[in-house]
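Morning. Coffee machine broken again, so started the prediction first thing and wrote up yesterday's gels while waiting. Chain of 121 residues, entered below exactly as on the submission form.
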Amino acid sequence: MPTILVIEDQKLIRMMLCDHLREHNFRVLEAEDGMEGVTMVESEEISLVITDLVMPNFDGINFLNLLTSCHPETKVISCTSLPKENDIYQEAAQIIGEDKIVQKSSNFEGLVEKVKAMLAE
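Came back before lunch.
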């Protein structure tokens, strides 16, 4: 069973997304910021990471840079509410590709389908 790590500082969003992924039979781990996410990536076998970009302590850009350099085999999706024109969004797109960035929504079905497609690659 693939393990998905969700890194999201907003507790309610994190809980709802994790619950939704569990309903689709994924093993899900949670982190509230990038630093906690780094610790989990180093200690667990993670198949895919879903991360926010704007977080306290260790933001999504720092996390993406570290993940892609130290664990390039780990798949990643960034889930953000930032507009495409935002500098942080653009920097994330350069690191992981714009096709791996999705807009935050309370409807998680599209994200779950993207997760399934990426894990099938």
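The beta strands are 3-7, 27-31, 48-51, 75-80, 101-103. Going to sketch it on the whiteboard this afternoon.
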